[in-house]
Amino acid sequence: MALYDLTLNEIQEYLKLEPYRARQVVEFMYKHLGDLSKASALPKNVLNQIAGDPYFQTSLKLLKLSQCDNGQTHKFLFELNDHKLIESVLMQYHNRSSVCISTQSGCKMNCSFCATGQMGFKRNLTKGEIVEQVITLMRFCLRNNYRPVTNLVFMGMGEPLDNYENTVSASWAIKNDLNLGAKHITISTVGIVPAIESMADDNLPFRLAVSLHGADNETRSRIVPINKKYPIETLVVALKKYLMASGSRRISLEWTLIEGTNDSVDQAIKLSKIAKDLKAHVNLIYLNPTKATLNRPTDKNTALAFKSMLDNHGINCTLRRTRGQSIDAACGQLASIN
Ligand code: SF4
Question: Where is 99: in which H helix or E strand?
């Protein structure tokens, strides 16, 4: 446990503060991003309490910061208090600034193309460890005159819905205390059906991105093994329930283009049907090279033809530019190698 694991009431109780003082501490933590030099509203004794209490120390130690794409992509390697490693990525664009945040150290899901999956599962991150990644990257933007963070995706290490409670409570803190709109917070999943149903039942306002990668069970199970447990038909039913729970939500389907595996005409047609059924946006991305896979990315012409096929079926679709590849910060590459 650490500072950002605590709620307002817990802070008030633990530090034995008046409610208004506890609110000032929360303001210091979130509005001022935990920067002690900006905590002038707090009296010295409270500041000393915060600074001197091991419970209030940071839960992340920055081990390494790498950058590429002309300084537009940064990868942060953090050590947690129990020496487990995680990574977070900051990407600057001309009109937005996006952070990619981890929810677990390692991952159980073992997707065929993913370096994180190959490192095995270490543990779930606490709510505080998730929130603190965002705080640290926001502070980095502020200190270096980068565009402030506008978007957040839980697409770093781990399967967010396999750590449902902490991912959701972190998302609420990021929305309510860091003022990032729910539409700008995306939870990404390989399709943990009971958790998607919980998202519907809990009426969560956040966006959902589903890593589909295959449009029939045989193809998808080869890329995303959890499909054997939650096949496409079951997944689609859960996603419809999630969509129905609030008419305003939009789902995106993520599709890593892998040469000879999921870039055929047949896959494009089947994907179009699923996307149409869910009124989903499709994000296509080239496979990023990792030690986890011998597969190759789809070549440009085949990728463009695949996209045209989706376009012709009336599917909203984007072929994404890969960011962070040279520092292993791109999708599927995060593996905490110091
Ligand atoms: S792609 Fe995501 S869910 Fe799959 S192994 Fe990698 S981190 Fe886990």
Answer: strand 97-100
Listed residue (70, 85, 71) closest to 133, CA to CA: 85
If one residue of 110, 119, 190 were mutated to test the ligand 1 pocket, choosing by the most ligand atoms within 8 A of its CB, it would be 190
State the distance from the centre of ligand 1 to the C-alpha of 210, rounded, in angstroms.
Answer: 11
Per-residue pLDDT for 213 more than 70? yes
> What is the number of residues in the chain?
338
CATH no. of 3-56:
1.10.150.530
pLDDT of amino acid 117 = 78
Instruction: Check: pTM over 0.90? Answer yes or no.
Output: yes
190 lines ligand 1 (CB under 6 A): yes
Does the domain at 60-327 match CATH 3.20.20.70? Answer given as: yes
pLDDT > 90: percent of the chain? 72
Pocket test for ligand 1, best of 86, 108, 116, 258 (most atoms within 8 A of CB): 116
**Domain layout of the chain by residue ranges:** 3-56, 60-327
Q: Is 332 near ligand 1, meaning CB less than 6 Å away?
A: yes
Please compute, for residue 60, the number of CA atoms within 13 A of its CA located in the half-sphere on the CB side.
Answer: 25
